[in-house]
Amino acid sequence: MSKRPTKSIRGRAVPMSKSDYQYRKPMNTEENIKLEIFSWAQGSKKNWITVGHTANILPSGVYKISMNDDGSFSYTEKDIKTDDLLTFKNSQCDILLNEIDNFWKYEADFKKRGYLQRNGYLLYGPPGSGKTAITEQITSTFVKNDGIAFICDVDPEEFSDGLQWFRRYEPERRILCLFEDIDSIITRYGDSSLLSCLDGENQISRVINVATTNYPENLDKRIINRPRRFSRIIKVGFPSSDIRESYFINKLKISKSEVKKWVDASDNFSFAACADLVIYVKCLHYSFDDSVKIITDTLTHKASSSEFKTED
Fold first, then answer.
1. Taking CA atoms, which of 68, 111, 291, 292 is between 20 and 30 Å from 165?
2. Which residues are CB-contacts of 235 (< 8 A; sequence separation ≥ 6)?
3. Which of 143, 60, 129 lies closest to 93 in space, CA to CA?
4. Residue 75 buriedness (CB in 10 A; 0-12 / 13-18 / 19+)
């Protein structure tokens, strides 16, 4: 059995008590008792509690915000597992990444003229056009550069309060706020709650908002046509032939001459459909022609319960 750690008192080694440190017994009883480093936090005037693994700043990552019972906020890191993220030269994603990178260089100009340094992008387009892929690429790059990304999946007013709480402790940190399927957020919580989050009285600086939607026509003009809420409204269409060519060359490791049939066959394919084409042919070992037919049928066929009806 492992000996309890000791502390020095007047030159003598004295066993530490449980009040001196926090310990836990591992599942494997043959392992030594593992020590955890703790700090003291004042819960009330005369009440102190131990807290573990404190940090001066929140580690870079993607987080969800939730309000605690006492009105404080918790930030839960979200694991994002995606396919390999690709950036194509002169693509919408590449242009946006450069624009966002330049945006952070202009802090002094915003301060000089008394503006909060914030910007917003609303990406719209059909399902599978690549909106999520662009958002993931922006987020990945942002986090790698020591930024913090927050996903809005609660009431936007609560989300805004959580941002304010975060700013109390990290006043200068760059923040990326993600509003995926913003029309669904409005349907669930109402547009007034979202408007308050986007440009209400509790606004903070050094923030970029990125939202996506498949249905821009469902958004109130107060959201889609109001500068400073979303400064850029960007249509994300299906990938061009040049981008599809780059995509297939990267995934298949083939030459330009070999990739031509892939590009020709994938006209009007979304990124998701292009990925499916590679998977069907290279992972599931379907023939190329059968794979194209399966995907084309999936894209054009509209399933309906009327197919079940038979004549009496």
1. 111
2. 124, 125
3. 129
4. middle
On the CB side of 131, CA atoms within 13 Å amount to 24
- Which residue, among 237, 234, 262, 3, has the nearest Cα to 123 in the 3D structure? 234
Q: Which two tokens stand for residue 171?
A: 């006043």
Residue 95 phi/psi, 5-degree rounding, is: -65, -45
pTM beyond cutoff 0.90:
no
pLDDT in tens, 48-63: 877 777 888 999 999 9
CA distances from 115 to 50, 65, 118, 160, 203 (A): 41, 26, 9, 19, 11
- Asked which of 12-16, 249-253, 259-263, 296-300 is least confident by mean pLDDT, the reply is 12-16
Q: Distances from the Cα of 165 to the Cαs of 27, 143, 229, 267, 274, in angstroms?
A: 37, 20, 21, 48, 42
Exposure string for 243-265, b = 16+ CB within 10 A, e = fewer = bbbbbbbebeeeeeeebeebbeb
Is it the case that residue 100 has pLDDT exceeding 60?
Answer: yes
Report which secondary-structure segment, H or E, holds 6: strand 6-9
With vertex at residue 122, the alpha carbon angle to CA 236 and CA 139, rounded to the nearest 5 degrees, is: 85
Could you tell me how many helices (H) and strands (E) the chain has, helices first? Answer: 11, 13
Q: Which domains does the chain have, with CATH numbers?
A: 6-52 (no CATH), 92-235 (3.40.50.300), 241-299 (no CATH)
